[in-house]
Automatic annotation (TrEMBL):
Source organism (scientific name): Rhizobium leguminosarum
Domain Helicase C-terminal span(s) in chain numbering: 263-433
PROSITE patterns for the chain: HELICASE_ATP_BIND_1, HELICASE_CTER
This protein's record includes keyword DNA-binding: no
Domain of life: Bacteria
Domain Helicase ATP-binding span(s) in chain numbering: 33-215
Molecular function terms, GO-annotated: ATP binding; ATP hydrolysis activity; DNA binding; helicase activity
Classification via PANTHER family: ATP-DEPENDENT HELICASE LHR-RELATED, ATP-DEPENDENT HELICASE LHR-RELATED-RELATED
Pfam families with a match to the protein in the record: DEAD, Helicase_C
Name used for this protein in its record: DEAD/DEAH box helicase
Amino acid sequence: MPISAFDLLAEPVRRWIWKQKWRRLRDVQEKAIPVILAGGDVVVSARTAAGKTEAVMLPLLTKIKNSQEESSGFSVLYVSPLKALINDQFRRLEDLCDQCGVILTKWHGDVSADVKARARKRPSGVVLITPESLEALLVRRPDEVPALFSSLDAVVIDELHAFIGTERGMQLQSILNRIENACGRDRISRVGLSATLGDMELAAAALRVGAVSTAKIINGDDEGNGVRLQIRGYVKGDADRDAEVSTETAQGPTEEFGVSERLAADLFRLLRGKRNLMFAGSRQKVEVFTDRLRAKCDDGHFPNEFFAHHGSLSKVEREDVETRLRDDPRPTTAIATTTLELGIDIGEVDTVAQIGPGYSVASLRQRLGRSGRREGKPAVLRMFVSEVRPGPGGHPADRLNLDLVQSIAMVESLIAGWCEPPSATGLHLSTLLHQVLALILQTGGISAPRAWDVLCGRGPFRSVDRALFADLLRCMASPDNKLIEQSPQGMLMIGEGGERVTESHEFYPVFATDREYRILHEARTLGTYPLDSPLASGETIIFAGRRWKVLEVDDGARVITVKPTRGGKPPYFSGEGGGIHDHIISQMRDILETSGSYSYLDQSATDMLSAARSAYGELGLHETRILSYGDGVLVFPWLGSRKKQTLSLAMMAKGFQSTSFGHVIELQGCDPAGAKKALQEIADGAVPDADEIVRRVAKPNVARFDNHLSWDLMSLITLRERLDFDGLPEAARRVVALTS
């Protein structure tokens, strides 16, 4: 008779399972336990709340208990993208580790120095840590790294999808490689956890560059409790506009952020009295919807149930909302951006609501998994989609109700089991620059060939050859930067400019952060506000879902003091949004060109889809992708965000006044024949010069250390990572192929 996964576990681990009164192990646990006990790299993927954490930790704790000798360092390094997730996992694993007699340590910026000092003095068991704290440990205490990590059984990477294809993911891969190098270990097992992975092979590559084939892949088949899903449609007509809340941003009137009375009433009716998550999109929309629903509570003389949650709010404000959802029996709806999308423990929620289509199916899947965790209760997701009623002379794109069509495409992809594959590894020169500085600090000085070998030859930056690495080093040493210098012995050392960069506590993160004011009410910090969105004394603002009057703006201290008031306008936050995958755009076109019905649409959304399909035919978009409009043309390329933006920039480089917005490219001052001629030239290979295209990118400095890169290096990474230059001929061919 074969041995069960349960029988493979150590006795203290089995005893803990009995204590939990589990009737059986979950599917992902049955599959993962023997594989993780065997060692090696593993990717574990299953739906949210399917028991992935236990699937990994039960066998790893078993390995610790079965070890024949006392470990002289940490046994498990558990890396998580958020401090809040670490706090949650600590609460979740504390009893299990106590039952097994294993020390559990959390380590991030909010943990006291005393706790970290004790852990460094006697490292043992499991340590939960962020990439930034791990980086600081390597840089500040390099001599302690072998003692801390030489005995590791495994590194666990939680929420793996949050790291894939990002600067932070490259930093983490580099850190883990540097740990193996410093400890003299050829390979320490890595285990990645995620609920949303579109391409498992690329996901496996996120664990260890160049080792895809060696990583074992575990897919959990727990189907959960079923799903109840609905898309509700809203048209902003004249009657709705009359009832909208009057809102303005720091940039002027913004009717699109007004909440129609019908939408507000439906949200209030469907969410009040329950425990919900509502994803509003941008931080500005979070504040507007929270304010509107809070006002409806006041109007009905109900206690407030609606609370804002986004990254610009203070830690205390966010944790108050999380605690209320998790521990307080009162009805609560958290209105959030993506901040509650990852696995922060907020307990059971009844419903997930989403405003608009969102930007990715992976995100939609993650959000859906936040409800339906209790046995016998299905996950519930409602999407609320508002479209503008096009008037006479209105924009043709408004007639296509593209937010609704995109929402349907997202749901259909979700049902089909598709989600966006991880991004392929780019050059990530900004993060490589950071890692060069970190490696120099860790080693006290290193030769250029050795640095290339650690970071590129055997590290994650394998797309960077020796010649490009030399170009980067020369750029770092240039008079404009002085980040590094070379000793007479040929060792790379930190330069004058590098000292200024690395001495700051802000050196360790590789993600860009905005310079911001703090918003204070009495002694309480409400959150932060961007410096590029100034406020003046006497102005009003909606923040943390409440209305405030600005009392004083202290530019020197970067502090805005406020007091409660009746009036208020939404805050302005720049840089919010995301790219849409080619697959979704292709689905949208198919939805418009076919006549299929969707049972999850309410009557209003069904009518809106019918109107969109009629407009698609009336505009002739079955036969052409170029329409006359005003003194120019509209191009409907039906391409994902990256390809569409590149095509728009190419048309600009050919002398057109080109604007890319929504799903359309608008060309001014031309006719369809002229637009088609230019597109045909690109399709035939007459692509504009790459430098001309790059010069038209609105914000080329995206990554944290891009400002230190030369124009040539910035051009290289912009073309490689942020545009689709090589795909331009095919993109243009797709447009002209349907143009008579």
